[in-house]
Design a protein that fits this description.
By secondary structure, the chain is an all-alpha fold. It has 1 helix and no strands. It has one domain.
Length: 141
C-alpha cells in the first residue's frame, strides 16, 4: 500500500527543481527562439504585404498609363487620318479644278471647230442641195 512520508516531499521538491532547471536551460531559449521566429515571420509577412500593395499600385498606374497612351495613340491616329482626308480633299479639289479648266478649254476648242465646220458646210450647202434635187428629180434644177 501507499504511504505518505517525507519522500513524497523530496520527490515534489526534486520535480520542482527539475522543472525550474529545464525552464532555464531548455524551455526559455526555445520560447525565445520561437518568439524571434514569429517576429521575423510577422516582419516578412508585413514586407510581403507592402510589396504586394506596391505591386498592385504599380500595376494600376501601368494600366492607367497604358490606357492613356492608347487614348493618345487613338487621337493621334484620328488626327493623322483627318489630315490625310483633308489633304486628299484638297488634291481632289485641285484635280477637279484643273480638269474643269481643261474641259472648258476642250469645249471652247470643239465649239470653235464646230463653228468652222458649220461655216464651211453652210458655204457648200447650196451646192449639195442642187445636186440632191437633181438626183431626186432626175433633171437639172
Amino acid at each position: 500500500m501507499l504511504s505518505i512520508d517525507y519522500t513524497v516531499f523530496v520527490q515534489i521538491a526534486n520535480f520542482l527543481f527539475l522543472l525550474f532547471i529545464l525552464n532555464i536551460i531548455l524551455y526559455k531559449p526555445i520560447r525565445n527562439i520561437l518568439g524571434r521566429r514569429k517576429g521575423e515571420i510577422d516582419s516578412f509577412e508585413k514586407s510581403i504585404k507592402d510589396f504586394q500593395d506596391r505591386l498592385s499600385q504599380a500595376t494600376r498606374e501601368l494600366d492607367e498609363s497604358m490606357a492613356g497612351a492608347r487614348k493618345e495613340g487613338f487621337k493621334e491616329r484620328e488626327s493623322c487620318k483627318n489630315e490625310g482626308l483633308e489633304e486628299e480633299k484638297g488634291m481632289v479639289d485641285e484635280a477637279t479644278a484643273s480638269s474643269g479648266d481643261e474641259i472648258a478649254k476642250a469645249k471652247n476648242t470643239i465649239e470653235g471647230e464646230v463653228a468652222d465646220v458649220r461655216q464651211s458646210l453652210e458655204k457648200e450647202i447650196a451646192v449639195f442641195s442642187k445636186e440632191l434635187a437633181t438626183k431626186i428629180l432626175g433633171r437639172s434644177v
